[in-house]
Amino acid sequence: MSQQPLQLRVAIVVGSTREGRFAPVVTQWIKGHLDQRDDMSTDVIDLAETPLPTVLPAFGQPPAPGTEEALALVSPRLAAADAFVFVTPEYNHSFSASLKNAIDWHNEQWHAKPIGFVSYGGISGGLRAVEQLRVVMAELHATTIRNTVSLHNAWGLFDEECAMKDAQSDAAAKVMLDQLAWWGDALRAARNARPYAV
Predict the structure, then answer these.
(1) Residue 153 — pLDDT band, cuts 50, 70, 90?
(2) Using CA atoms, how far apart are residues 112 and 138, in angstroms rounded to an integer?
(3) Which of 40, 90, 136, 146 has the CB geometry, 3.0–4.6 Å to 129, for a possible disulfide?
(4) How far apart are the C-alpha atoms of 48 and 98, rounded to whole Å?
């Protein structure tokens, strides 16, 4: 009798901390897609609720006193994740400073793990933020998923109850998560077989 494979632990990282942000609507929508799957469990890491210090320690030095408490709310959850979904808007043709800060506080937590992107915004749908994130995450030995969920003019895609009105966006989410599942399973098996070499 074959055993059911373990669920992939997927951390949704919410990259916007702006007041009045639209991120919670987008996050709940993609979390709804994840919750419908039997092969994934979800942990939402909202950077507005778990702010990290903006002053990093010198190379090779421990964090400043008091920093450990803030990191303890984020770092173990990133380490436990098998895969990630970044929910990101586009700020000035890039992604937010809060997301970059959270990325830079960590290193091995990203190694040999896949990342899917859900971006949102106006006419560009946040795609320029995603293209820059791909370069950053490659430096951190992560694998980014080819298919991106990009919500163009996102505010018009949801109804008054914050439900998605656009079937194409729902279809794009399914494809991205299917690819995330494939890479998540493959990379988890590889990490379990032998440590990732840096």
Answers:
(1) very high
(2) 10
(3) 90
(4) 8
CB 168 within 8 A of CB 157: no
pLDDT 10s digits, 71-83: 999 999 999 999 9
Residue pair 79/45 in contact (Cβ under 8 Å)? The answer is no
pTM of structure: 0.95
* CA distances in angstroms from 8 to 64, 145, 189, listed in the order given: 33, 15, 11
* Closest listed residue to residue 120, CA positions, set 83, 85, 78: 85
118 forms bridges with which residues in the sheet? 87, 149
Cα angle 140-92-46, degrees, rounded to a multiple of 5? 55
CA dist 84 and 77 (Å) reads 11
**Sign, Cα dihedral of 189, 191, 197, 198:** positive
Q: Which amino acid is at 10?
A: V
Please report the pLDDT score of residue 2 as a whole number. 54
